[in-house]
Amino acid sequence: MGQTTDRTPVLWADLRRFTPARVALGRAGNGLPTAAHLEFQAAHAAARDAVHAVLDVSALRADLDAAGLASIAVHSKAPDRRTYLLRPDLGRRLRDRGAVPSWPGAMLFVVCDGLSATAVQRHAVGLLRHLVPRLPGAVPPIVVAEQGRVALGDDIGEAMGAEAVAVLIGERPGLSAADSLGVYLTWRPRRGRTNAERNCISNIRSDGLPPEAAGDKLLWLIAAMRRLRLTGIGLKDEQPDALPAPD
């Protein structure tokens, strides 16, 4: 048989070069080595901290302003973090619909703390800075929402009369990433939309999908959404490897 150019790992430890997942940790008797156990505890603590972290709305809005992006701040019906975690339904509803302006036909962007305010604080502005100036037409102020779930974008979008909404939200932290940002794109947002009617871009972070690449993907999805007038299972991510150069 001929030789193959693929190198089969001789040791499980070789796999650690290719993934941040916990593989080939070794053993100390029937348990993990002390270093691996301590790393696990540190990752678990980072995930818990991310879930309970408070979004610094003032700092986020200042960063948006520095990027030339206007913003407004709103709050879901969940009054605090504990309620938000125990009552997901309250995080899907806007506390005051009168707090948002009417903007019929707009492409709306909502930034929610979600389950990792850390992710939003680190990556949301970079993505929007890369994306928004490349969109045709006027874009309404970025809506910064506290204690928000994905479906809060439907409530906000319906109240504003938006054509579509993209919700940038902190994803549930894992033990290898506590700062992962997700984006959920929904055509014709309104209360009662389901996840099958959305397109999702996930794992947006420095060691995952970089914010600039996520912005390129979202720009492609928005164009395809407007062409097909839908999102969700009917809109396939068929973005080419490279976007054409602007005229």
In short:
This protein is α/β, with parallel strands linked by helices. The chain has six helices and six strands, in the order ααβαβαβαβββα.
Topology:
Elements: H1 34-52, H2 57-66, E1 71-75, H3 81-86, E2 107-112, H4 117-131, E3 142-146, H5 152-160, E4 164-170, E5 181-187, E6 198-204, H6 211-228
Parallel strand pairs: 1-3, 2-3, 2-4
Antiparallel strand pairs: 4-5, 5-6
Structural features, described:
The protein is α/β, with parallel strands linked by helices and 247 residues long. The protein has a single domain, classed as Ethanolamine ammonia-lyase light chain (EutC) (Rossmann fold, 3-Layer(aba) Sandwich), CATH 3.40.50.11240. The chain is 31% helix and 15% strand. The protein has 6 helices and 6 strands, in the order H-H-E-H-E-H-E-H-E-E-E-H. The chain has helices at 34-52, 57-66, 81-86, 117-131, 152-160, 211-228; strands at 71-75, 107-112, 142-146, 164-170, 181-187, 198-204. It has a 6-stranded mixed β-sheet with strand order 1-3-2-4-5-6, sandwiched between helices. Helix 4 (117-131) links the parallel strand 2 and strand 3 (142-146). Helix 2 packs parallel to helix 4 (117-131) and helix 4 (117-131) crosses helix 6. The chain starts with 33 loop residues before the first helix and ends in a 19-residue tail after the last helix. The model is unreliable at 1-5 (pLDDT under 50).
